[in-house]
Amino acid sequence: MEGCTDRDAFKARVPVVTYEDLRPEIERIANGDRSNIISSHPISDSGTSAGERKLMPTIEDELDRRQMLYSLLMPVMNLFVPGLDKGKGLYFLFIKSETKTPGGLPARPVLTSYYKSDHFKYRPFDAYQVYTSPTPAILCTDSFQSMYSQMLCGLLVRTEVLRVGAVFASGLLRAIRFLQLHWKELARDIETGTLSAKVVEPSIRAAVAEVLEPNPDLAAFVAAECAKDNWEGIITRMWPNTKYLDVIVTGAMAQYIPTLKFYSGGLPMACTMYASSECYFGLNLRPMCDPSEVTGFHNAAPQFRFVRRKNVLLSIDSDKTDEAELQAAVERAARLLAPYGASIVEYTSEADATTIPGHYVVYWELMLKDCREGLWPEAAVFERCCLEMEEALNSVYRQGRNGDAIGPLEIRVVRGGTFEEVMDYAISRGASINQYKAPRCVSFGPIIELLNSRVLSKHFSPACPKYGPPKK
């Protein structure tokens, strides 16, 4: 095989593998083995992905390759939106907490690795990559201090902002919700030229002090716009020169498109590259088109659209919950109903993106052994069931809940016979009665409407599930 360059020989020597195929080697690296197991280059980091975080060894050269790809994004965008080097980008960027593997390698999300690297912190000036957010704010793990200072700095240069974005659509909507909750404090800071005492990180205070000075006119404008009941088009009202939104709106993030259109006044949404935690695939050479039109070829290079994550049932942000995980969570919560003689007949779920942040909704149809009045479980029992389900979900979900990425899980109890009606509806649309099974997740509008019209009660998780911060 030596010296062969044909495709079949390559496939024979380098077969397609899954994470499970490589898990033993990855665990050796995580546990401290520094021999040339997967790469001849030293492993510098251990990125993470998927529901229960999967470790992905990374070498220093990989950040060089990613940096090179980043440098190509804006020149491509400039072909469609000229003049992007004449203004700034308001991007809400955040890092997440990290741990260490038993062998001492840092284990953290891929973007956290990039933001904390010298590649990002000491990047050379690029007129196409001027951000309004100070680097210390992006590198702060306290979500309030980070968001507050990034929003404040974005407001201070509102007319210079040419694009607004975040990694995921959900992150940009969280920023808008943050503005709804804290505009009075932000306006006060702008008026007085002093940063809120709630922001205590010295590096952030020093960075913000360089751009913050009293501006009563701007403060009055922010207050007047945010005090209005109608927030339609708030992005273009706050940042009037915004040409597009730079966010991922494919896959599970597509559920946020209507809300983003409402808040942006219909601005175009650009997805600039093909990427995943495992690797970056390439550039999107048609970033301004609808995701459904990305497909086809550019010369011999394939163009494709991201449809969904494999085996993922529910996703709000970076969380990924599959059917088996949801089933286990429901079974765990159902045990709390046993003392009341209640059991779950059937269930389904949806990722509700109409709230900010979005949250999981689980529909339960119950059966009682004793139907006498007064034996129905009280509201507090269902609330405990919500929290019990959250405790059973993966660490990425629980981390998102302990931050501000995911809202409290909700259980909606529906009346008896509801899932029979769902089945009847599915059969009326052509489903086979012999092969029908209740869907464990629904996104089809008429079925969601049917479920919601049969709701008897709604219950939310009363607290965040346990998620311990990494030990220092």
Key phrases:
472 residues, alpha/beta, four-stranded mixed β-sheet, four-stranded parallel β-sheet, 16 strands, globular
3D architecture notes:
The chain has 472 residues and is of the alpha/beta class. It folds into two domains: 59-303, no CATH class; 323-460. 38% of the residues lie in helices and 18% in strands. It is built from 17 helices and 16 strands. The chain has helices at 7-13, 19-30, 60-80, 110-115, 118-121, 135-138, 143-156, 169-192, 202-209, 216-226, 234-238, 257-264, 323-334, 379-392, 395-402, 418-428, 445-453; strands at residues 43-49, 54-59, 88-92, 99-100, 106-109, 161-168, 244-248, 269-270, 273-275, 280-283, 296-298, 301-303, 342-352, 359-368, 410-414, 455-460. The strands form five sheets. The protein has a four-stranded mixed β-sheet with strand order 2-1-5-4. A four-stranded parallel β-sheet has the order 3-6-7-8, with helices on one face. Strand 9 (273-275) and strand 10 form a beta hairpin. Helix 8 runs parallel beside helix 12 (257-264) and helix 13 (323-334) runs antiparallel to helix 14. The protein starts with 6 loop residues before the first helix and ends in a 12-residue tail after the last strand. The model has no long low-confidence stretch (mean pLDDT 85).
